[in-house]
């Protein structure tokens, strides 16, 4: 019953947001990931996180995901780039729409200073829902990753919202060796992580 109530609250809030032309604020506030941590929606609705918490200094755990183009992706694979993961709660909510548009626009405007940084967006939506989201909002320059199948990312990073099977809004930066150098997990789902802070940290380790 609690799951139904909380899911309804999320959907109701999304509908309320959709009717509004307000934008959602960026915050520098952060809170830990992991089991029994709390994230709120509109302050009054409380959700519980589950999974093994990540923190700065850890190596990015393996999570087998699917890109929006239906290709496999393992978060533990190393590349020659620094990676920024923007974690979205649900592409069907307007907060996530703004988060995705802000990310795409930021990359387009600052391409020259972002060389060597790869951008990813992760949600528990299906790849097909992500495809629709990307098309409807004309998004580019970001690889979208789906955690809808086994929720490995949510459980292996402590970003899983237990009651909803969704991911808590956050941003994670890893170096070329897949070591986590920056994390921000927003305490309130109607706020957006500070992308500029994440990029500043990423640039320092290029």
UniProtKB/TrEMBL annotation:
Signal peptide (UniProt feature, chain positions): 1-18
Which parts of the sequence belong to the Thioredoxin domain?
54-204
Q: Which Gene3D superfamilies match?
A: Glutaredoxin
Q: Name one GO molecular function term.
A: thioredoxin peroxidase activity
Q: What does the UniProt keyword field contain?
A: Disulfide bond, Oxidoreductase, Peroxidase, Redox-active center, Signal
Which Pfam families does the protein's record reference? Redoxin (PF08534)
Tell me the InterPro entries matching this sequence.
Redoxin, Thioredoxin-like_sf, Thioredoxin_domain, TPX, Tpx_Peroxidase_subfamily
- The protein's name is Thioredoxin peroxidase
Tell me the organism: Vibrio caribbeanicus ATCC BAA-2122
